[in-house]
Specification:
By secondary structure, the protein is an alpha/beta fold. About 50% of the residues lie in helices and about 10% in strands. The relative contact order is 0.12.
């Protein structure tokens, strides 16, 4: 397979997982390259996602690494052999690659958790909310470019709006619900969107109120995307250059615990609905 100029995050993740398996087996890249009949440069390209790997080679590697986790191997095979271009590819070249990687990650996720303190989570945003947000953060953007960003964000909502949605849970701080990113009318529509989607069986929305005692978790904002197997879960944190993807096993375990802690102190679904209804009446 010819080398890629710039692998997607999913392609890079496949290579990283193969490297983890090799290192766990205590083998050097040069040893494994010889097994596959490639040179060390080609092996490095496979493990960095620059070069693809066939199913046959991947299974040979798994056997050589003494990996007997069939669920993990099957998930890696899917990552290695999928060829279908996703809807997000139409934005390549017009939006940062990091945002396309996020859309690809969500598309393949088995479930999704969000924790947010300053903004309504992207999957719950209305067009008005997203437009006001992008326009404020990037005032130099021409209107057409802002609309491109808004359109991309609205398409990302498909994972919870489609006929076969993934399970979705969001914990939102009261501050994010009260901040008027747009005008009063847009704020009402945004709260209505949150209430409407929270009625769905696959969606759970919870709120952390301002008056909660002993809450020091405001730094726990995250997106947690479930992989085909837990080893392929990913945490997304906002960074200075766009979303940063975290896949270290210890960090994943830490963020799973953080989500459960934040979820445990938030209002339950019924009280959340009453709370948001109350906020809407104030507008």
């Amino acid at each position: 397979m010819p080398p890629r100029r710039q692998p997607t995050a999913r392609q890079a993740r496949l290579g990283a997982e193969l490297r983890k398996l090799r290192e766990a087996a205590g083998l050097k890249a040069t040893e494994v390259a010889s097994l596959l009949g490639v040179n060390s440069v080609q092996m490095s390209q496979i493990e960095s996602g620059i070069a693809g790997v066939s199913e046959e080679r991947l299974r040979r590697l798994a056997a050589h690494y003494a990996c007997d986790d069939e669920a993990l191997i099957a998930a890696l095979v899917v990552m290695a052999t999928e060829r279908k271009r996703g809807w997000w590819e139409e934005y390549r070249g017009s939006l940062p690659n990091a945002f396309l990687d996020l859309a690809e990650l969500e598309h393949h996720a088995g479930f999704r958790w969000d924790v947010d303190f300053l903004h309504i989570p992207g999957l719950l945003q209305t067009e008005d909310y997203s437009r006001a947000l992008f326009s404020y953060v990037n005032p130099e953007f021409p209107k057409g470019e802002v609309e491109r960003w808004v359109e991309h964000r609205m398409q990302r909502r498909v994972i919870i709006d489609r006929a076969d949605p993934i399970p979705y849970a969001a914990v939102i701080h009261e501050g994010a619900l009260r901040i008027r990113v747009g005008d009063r009318v847009a704020a009402r529509r945004q709260l209505a969107r949150v209430l409407s989607i929270s009625d769905a069986d696959h969606v759970t929305v919870r709120v952390i109120p301002f008056d909660l005692d002993d809450f020091g978790g405001a730094g726990s904002a995250m997106v947690y995307a479930g992989g085909a197997v837990p080893e392929l879960d990913t945490v997304v944190r906002d960074g200075p250059n766009g979303p940063a993807l975290i896949d270290d096993e210890a960090q994943l375990a830490r963020y799973r615990k953080l989500f459960r802690r934040v979820e445990a102190v938030s209002l339950d679904a019924e009280r959340t609905r009453d709370f948001i209804h109350g906020l809407a009446k104030e507008l």
